[in-house]
């Protein structure tokens, strides 16, 4: 079996002022090792919820189904254990951390993950060398490392910072939650390069997006259409092109 | 029956010196909830404990105690008190600094001052000559004893015109005791006193401290208090800006776990024009801890162009944690700039999740966010060695705190 990420019948709800609101309604999705998949869908279809549930945010209650990653029961793990296992979520709106230095944060994260993976920790010099190589690659100034995490960062800088973290943490499965929203073409290219550079037989990714645009730069192996908490259609890269041209209506009508 | 019971007040009266303070103590007793300034920190809890005079400690034992409780005071110039008595063998002062008789005067409407004066033990009397830079001096006060004892050191620090001093004030101890220190501060024209206080008393201790600072024209009293220890503590500051262009900083961080109670009360009085006061107080409160902040800025009619800032923030890390915050502005001048604010909050779930999603374990993520919260206050300490000491103390406190 080549099943790397395997999601079966996943149901999840959120507490909406005391009333449970069902968001994922029996979602099935398999992403084999080495493949990059995209999920597209209208607002409110549950795309971000899926990414949070996979990363382990506890505001969502999983009410049914399963999600395994490389054979491990993902849903039973703490967020930090999922990160150590190799799951990475690039946030749609990365939170600001006033008073937390970006370089210290990154080094703490890298070493926490290395510890959990039973790899030697990086000392200050080793870390600096590794991070400088990455910032150069991403066309980021070292000055961003001295600032507080995401504080006062422009939209593009925040997304680059997410990609920097992704490259430093070396995930085996990355989820990019609308990482392309609000980016200009240059920033979009950098994000795409960040993903493409990790592409290989041991790396998979799930790209959540509204637009075809990002997929011009990251060629997906499969494209899934999501609506009302389910995958309603799957196909090759041509699905994204069809969506761009004709919208979601054709798929929504088909399941209605 | 009541006459036979031990009470705190009874034990104090038995040891009090004759004089005005004794009379006041006898008339007023220990402050309770009905006294507005003591509403959040009534001393009723002390009433059933009798405090004896502490036993003297031999120099060798004092040395061992110092190494155990305040190792950071090892390298610097220092004045060491153990159980309320100066230990000359452990004391060393830089040139240009004189020890004089301390004479912290009584402030009749401050119960901590009354108690201290009634039972006063001679403390540090330090005099820095005009224009001299005395560098850093550690004032270390340690208490040890098996039965409840109390110390009432009266310190007085005087800086003549344009003098400089950094006073590293470390309070620590072992066992049950009451530490009741009073520090009188006089900062003459153009002089600068940096006062860094670390209160890391024993978990069974009570600390009632009072600072009475008088700052003259262009002078600066720059203080930071880190409160980590004692089951019950109050740090009370009365600062008087008596000459134009004087400045006072009353910054603090209070870290409370268990069922500890810590109170920071300050009154900053602007009695001259063009003076500056700054106050940033941060509280990190866990479990059943209870923090209190009472801060008053009083601006006299004459004190035009006053620039006052006060901020009190609390991070509550449990459902039971409590903060009482009472900021007050009393302004009689018409051309002033005074602002104050208070916030209370928990750790941000979104920030916590972000850190954990990057592989940082829960407890480490919490520690990072707590340190980030304290940063605005801790970064106000400019002296590098002192700043490093505070960081280490915060770190140790976090690691050694009672597990939740």
From TrEMBL, chain A:
UniProt cross-references to InterPro entries, sorted A to Z: AAA+_ATPase (IPR003593), ABC_transporter-like_ATP-bd (IPR003439), FeS-cluster_ATPase_SufC (IPR010230), P-loop_NTPase (IPR027417)
Presence of the UniProt keyword Protein transport in the record: no
Gene3D superfamilies: P-loop containing nucleotide triphosphate hydrolases
Keyword field: ATP-binding, Nucleotide-binding
Listed GO MF terms: ATP binding; ATP hydrolysis activity
Domain of life: Bacteria
Domain ABC transporter: 5-253
Entries under PROSITE patterns matching the protein: ABC_TRANSPORTER_2 (PS50893)
Pfam families referenced in this protein's UniProt entry, alphabetically: ABC_tran
Segments crossing the lipid bilayer: none
Record bears the keyword ATP-binding: yes
Protein family per UniProt: Belongs to the ABC transporter superfamily. Ycf16 family.
Protein name: ABC transporter ATP-binding protein
Species of provenance: Swaminathania salitolerans
Gene behind the chain: sufC
Automatic annotation (TrEMBL), chain B:
InterPro entries: Fe-S_cluster_assembly_SufBD, SUF_FeS_clus_asmbl_SufBD_core, SUF_FeS_clus_asmbl_SufBD_sf, SUF_FeS_clus_asmbl_SufD
GO BP annotations listed: iron-sulfur cluster assembly
The SUF system FeS cluster assembly SufBD core domain, residue ranges: 150-373
Pfam family, one: SUFBD_core
Entry coiled-coil feature ranges: none
Lineage top rank: taxon: Bacteria
Name the record gives this protein: Fe-S cluster assembly protein SufD
Organism name: Swaminathania salitolerans
């Amino acid at each position: 079996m080549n099943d790397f990420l395997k999601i079966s019948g996943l149901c999840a709800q959120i507490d909406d002022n005391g009333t449970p609101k069902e968001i994922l309604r029996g979602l099935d999705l398999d992403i084999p090792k080495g493949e990059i998949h995209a999920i597209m869908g209208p607002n409110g279809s549950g795309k971000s919820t899926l990414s949070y549930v996979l990363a382990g945010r506890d505001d969502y209650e999983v009410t049914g189904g399963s999600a395994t990653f490389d054979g491990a029961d993902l849903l039973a793990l703490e967020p930090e254990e999922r990160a150590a296992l190799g799951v990475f979520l690039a946030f749609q709106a990365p939170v600001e951390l006033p008073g937390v230095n970006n370089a210290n944060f990154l080094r703490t994260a890298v070493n926490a993950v290395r510890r959990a993976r039973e790899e030697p920790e990086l000392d200050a010099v080793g870390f600096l060398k590794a991070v400088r190589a990455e910032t150069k690659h991403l066309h980021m100034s070292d000055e961003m490392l001295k600032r507080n995490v995401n504080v006062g960062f422009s939209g593009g800088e925040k997304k680059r910072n997410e990609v920097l973290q992704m490259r430093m943490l070396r995930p085996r499965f990355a989820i990019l939650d609308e990482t392309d929203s609000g980016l200009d073409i240059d920033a979009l290219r950098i994000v795409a390069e960040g993903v493409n550079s990790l592409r290989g037989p041991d790396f998979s990714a799930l790209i959540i997006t509204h637009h075809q645009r990002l997929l011009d730069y990251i060629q997906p192996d499969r494209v899934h259409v999501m609506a009302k908490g389910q995958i309603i259609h799957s196909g090759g890269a041509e699905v994204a092109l069809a969506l761009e041209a004709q919208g979601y209506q054709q798929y929504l009508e088909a399941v209605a | 029956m009541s006459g036979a019971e031990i009470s705190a007040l009874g034990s104090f009266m038995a040891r009090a010196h004759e004089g005005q303070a004794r009379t006041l103590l006898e008339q007023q007793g220990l402050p309770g909830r009905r006294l507005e300034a003591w509403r959040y920190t009534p001393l009723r809890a002390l009433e059933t404990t009798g405090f004896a005079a502490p036993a003297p400690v031999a120099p060798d034992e004092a040395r061992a105690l110092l190494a155990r409780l305040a190792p950071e005071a090892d390298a610097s110039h220092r004045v060491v008190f153990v159980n309320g008595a100066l230990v000359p063998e452990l004391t060393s002062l830089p040139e240009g600094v004189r020890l004089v008789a301390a004479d912290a005067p009584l402030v009749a409407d401050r119960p901590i001052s009354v108690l201290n004066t009634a039972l006063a033990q001679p403390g540090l009397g330090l005099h820095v000559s005009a224009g001299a830079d005395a560098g850093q001096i550690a004032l270390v006060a340690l208490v040890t004893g098996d039965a409840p004892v109390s110390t009432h050191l009266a310190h007085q620090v005087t800086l003549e015109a344009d003098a400089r001093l950094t006073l590293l004030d470390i309070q620590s101890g072992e066992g049950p005791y009451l530490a009741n220190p009073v520090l009188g501060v006089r900062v003459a024209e153009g002089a600068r006193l940096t006062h860094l206080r670390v209160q890391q008393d024993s978990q069974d201790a009570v600390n009632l401290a009072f600072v009475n600072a008088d700052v003259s024209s262009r002078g600066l009293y720059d203080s930071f208090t880190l409160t980590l220890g004692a089951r019950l503590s109050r740090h009370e500051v009365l600062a008087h800006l008596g000459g134009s262009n004087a400045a006072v900083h009353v910054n603090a961080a209070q870290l409370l776990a268990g069922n500890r109670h810590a109170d920071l009360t300050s009154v900053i009085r602007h009695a001259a024009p063009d003076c500056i006061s700054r106050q940033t107080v941060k509280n990190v409160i866990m479990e059943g801890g209870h923090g209190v902040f009472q801060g008053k800025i009083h601006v006299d009619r004459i004190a035009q162009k006053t620039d006052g800032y006060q901020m009190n923030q609390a991070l509550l890390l449990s459902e039971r944690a409590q903060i009482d915050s009472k900021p007050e502005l009393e302004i009689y001048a018409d051309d002033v700039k005074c602002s104050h604010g208070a916030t209370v909050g928990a750790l941000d779930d979104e920030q916590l999740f972000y850190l954990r999603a990057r592989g940082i374990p829960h407890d480490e993520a919490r520690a990072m966010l707590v340190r980030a919260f304290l940063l605005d206050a801790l970064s106000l300490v400019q002296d590098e060695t002192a700043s490093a000491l505070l960081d280490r103390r915060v770190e140790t406190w976090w690691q050694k705190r009672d597990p939740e």
